[in-house]
Amino acid sequence: MFLIGEALIGEEPELAHVDIIIGDKNGPAGQAFATGFTQLSAGHTPLLSVIRPNLLTKPATLIVPKVTVQNMDGAAKIFGPAQSAVARAVADAMDEGIIPKEQAEDLVIVASVFIHPQAEDYSKIYRYNYGATKLAVQRAMEGFPDVDTVMEEKDRTMHPIMGFNVTRLWDPPYLQVAIDIPDMDFVKKVLTQLPQSDHLIIEAGTPLIKRYGLDVVSRIREARPNAFIVADLKTLDTGNLEARMVADATADAIVISGLAPISTIEKAIKEAKKTGIYACIDMLNVPDPVKVLKDLSVKPDIIELHRAIDAEDSEYAWGSIPDMKKVHPKLLVAVAGGIGKLEAGSAKVSDACSAGADIIVIGRSITKAKDVRLATEVFLEDMQKAEIDQYRVMTDF
User: Fold this and answer.
1) Partners of residue 55 on adjacent β-strands
2) Nearest partner of 365 among 178, 173, 202, judged by Cα
3) What span, in angstroms and rounded, lies between the C-alpha atoms of 376 and 72?
4) Which residues contact 294 (CB under 8 A, 6 or more apart)?
5) E strand or H helix that includes residue 5
6) Residue 264 parent element (H or E)
7) Do β-strands 200-204 and 50-52 pair in parallel, antiparallel, or remain unpaired?
8) What is the mean pLDDT of residues 313-337?
9) Which residues sit opposite 335 in a β-bridge?
10) What 3-state DSSP class applies to 243?
11) What percent of the chain has pLDDT over 90?
12) What's the whole-model pTM score?
């Protein structure tokens, strides 16, 4: 047996974060237990977990401090409330049947325990570490989280200590606001008026980037720190270099031209994947987008079917959406060009969604509207998509 569990409970500075390994004494967990017990390091001295002096918990548990213990005050927190909390939580887990009693002498536990140097309240230190240890043990014994839970949860939220969110596109459709006007005062005005929405993407358009460079992404990030920001470079060459530049500028996606050589597109996609950003191929003026997608040895995250501003009297090219998703089932398809305009024959957001689009790109119909917020909210409502997890309480994970 070799099981792993983790839990974080409480609030700073007394919050508790406990990582544990549970396994057989004669297996790798037992080896780690013995090694940790005998090979000490300054400030991180492992200690046996006891409920009180002379009462070792079962299964035997070794506590390893995560934070360097620098003085006796720090040592007292580990040897006092934290040690007792971990020991009692393990014993209670066995008493409640989470750990089978018949395995009490066969198993060992290694618990890595975080105690903030500024923690002061011993009661909170005890209670938070008790809860975190108990939950970590239960999760280890139950194999939590399973793979399906990880896949479902990985893009929904971020670690609270980060202080910001990295948005992922897991719940389409999305409304992408393309800001093309190369005027920073105009950009700031639009950004302040856009509503907060889980289904809103902000695009730094090509003319905007051509005037201000990728630094404009950082300026958008300052105004909207948690936004998903697309850098529309329409890359035609040096794909890996430009993808790296976009990632360094803190954008979430790079736009590559579908007219670029296949090798350039593939290099840009690979670099995007390496840096954790999305790769979008703009199929503007590409005769057969499906063929380009098939020819790529590595697939993009997004394909954009783009009708140019200078060709908005032409037909929408949405018929290939199902064919592209057959080639790459995880593909997101964006559509752009004249959507939402008031002229007769113009498509609505709901029309694009019905055609299978995952991202609807709208520019001037929002950015040039008299009321930017109202226009955006109208388009969001037309998508008929509720906000993400607006009533969800993260009580467990």
Assistant:
1) 52
2) 178
3) 58
4) 327
5) strand 2-9
6) helix 262-275
7) unpaired
8) 84
9) 305, 360
10) helix
11) 74
12) 0.80
Spot the catalytic one: 17, 44, 159, 328: 17
Give the alpha-carbon dihedral of 34, 39, 43, 47, to 10 degrees: 30
Establish whether 17 is a catalytic residue. yes
Residues 2, 73: Cα–Cα separation, whole Å: 34
Chain center to CA of 265:
25
Token pair recorded at residue 80: 């006092």
Task: Find, among 280, 227, 235, 225, the residue nearest to 259 by Cα.
Answer: 235
Tell how strand 50-52 and strand 55-56 pair up. antiparallel
**Residues sharing a CB contact under 8 Å with residue 383, sequence separation 6 or more, in sequence order:** 173, 175, 199, 349, 350, 353, 360
Q: State whether the Cα torsion 371-372-377-383 is positive or negative.
A: positive
89: tokens are: 């939580």
> What does the pLDDT average to over 120-143?
95
Q: Which position has the token pair 């980037």?
A: 209
H or E element: which one contains 230? strand 228-235
Segment 132-186, tens digit of pLDDT? 999 999 999 999 999 998 888 888 777 666 667 788 999 999 999 999 999 999 9
Please check whether residue 214 is in contact with residue 246, taking contact to mean a CB–CB distance below 8 angstroms. yes
Give the type of residue at 248. D
CA 343 to CA 324: how far, in whole Å?
A: 29
3-state secondary structure of 374: helix
For residue 156, give the DSSP letter: T
Amino acid at position 19, single letter: D
Question: Do the Cβ atoms of 3 and 117 come closer than 8 Å?
Answer: no
Tokens of 8: 């974080």
CA distances from 194 to 200, 205, 375, 376 (A): 9, 16, 9, 7
The region that residue 9 occupies, defined by phi over 0 for left and psi between -120 and 50 for alpha, beta otherwise, is beta
In this structure, which amino acid lies at residue 100?
Answer: P
Residue pair 274/303 in contact (Cβ under 8 Å)? The answer is no
CA distance 312 to 343: 11
Helices (H) and strands (E) in the chain, counts: 15, 15
